[in-house]
């Protein structure tokens, strides 16, 4: 009974700390005379402005008599397209329009800039996560290799990447590597994140492999397995279980580090937040919302990893 009462007492302490934190935030906003305008935020997450249908090229518009369809005839060419399914017509019959001009609007809910930024962050992080795992696995195996060249290259990569700031690496990938190889901003950003995270993944994998007793490798070799087979079927599965928590932490850092690509021509969640702040003049509401969105991503990943840990623990 005492144990149960003590447990509820600590739950009360937890709630009390949260209440005090909320009061502190409210007092801070009152001190700077800040007016909270949360009503401005939902439209930047999802809105009912509808989807605009834009002109794919320069041309003249021919509107049907019933105004339920229009035909765009190319200005200097023979192409023509018929557009239907819109609710609001934004041009008139015979109008001259240019590429990307709005022709009509189809009503319905559409994602706002913050949601689009969240989607960009998710795509960028997912691509970087996959390639960082592959790169980290190769570099991690290189860090325990007996071949001096392989070991030297893997060590140089890990030390060089871990010893320089991610922001500097993003600039190098975007302005130098991206220019030389003609990479898109998305590819350059994903590559920079993958290379940076891969160095840390390599060290995690190296430590995980070295934590497995050497007897495991010797037992596998005595059963007739080659070194690659023993590494793949015996050592790596055991090392993966041990490295799962630090790998999860590194991947969570990857999602948060992706905010640095906002310095490039990519509208990720952080850059979308800056643009919304510029248009709403509501910095507190916007950045609290952006922080919550990042928390949803990292929290979902943490939950997935916890479930995977429990499942592997029972195998």
UniProtKB/TrEMBL annotation:
Glycoprotein keyword on record: no
Topology of the protein relative to the lipid bilayer: Multi-pass membrane protein
Keywords: Amino-acid transport, Cell membrane, Membrane, Transmembrane, Transmembrane helix, Transport
CDD domains in the record: TM_PBP2
Segments passing through the bilayer: 9-28, 124-145, 286-305
Any one biological process term the GO annotation gives: amino acid transport
PROSITE patterns: ABC_TM1
Gene Ontology MF, one: transmembrane transporter activity
Cell location: Cell inner membrane; Cell membrane
Gene3D superfamilies reported for this sequence: MetI-like
Main location: membrane
GO cellular component, one term: ATP-binding cassette (ABC) transporter complex
Every ABC transmembrane type-1 domain range: 118-305
SUPFAM superfamilies registered for this protein in UniProt: MetI-like (SSF161098)
Residue ranges of coiled coil: none
Family named by the database record: Belongs to the binding-protein-dependent transport system permease family. HisMQ subfamily.
Task of the protein: Part of the binding-protein-dependent transport system for glutamine; probably responsible for the translocation of the substrate across the membrane.
Family annotation (PANTHER family): GLUTAMINE TRANSPORT SYSTEM PERMEASE PROTEIN GLNP, MEMBRANE COMPONENT OF AMINO ACID ABC TRANSPORTER
Protein name (record): Putative glutamine transport system permease protein GlnP
Organism this protein belongs to: Solimonas marina
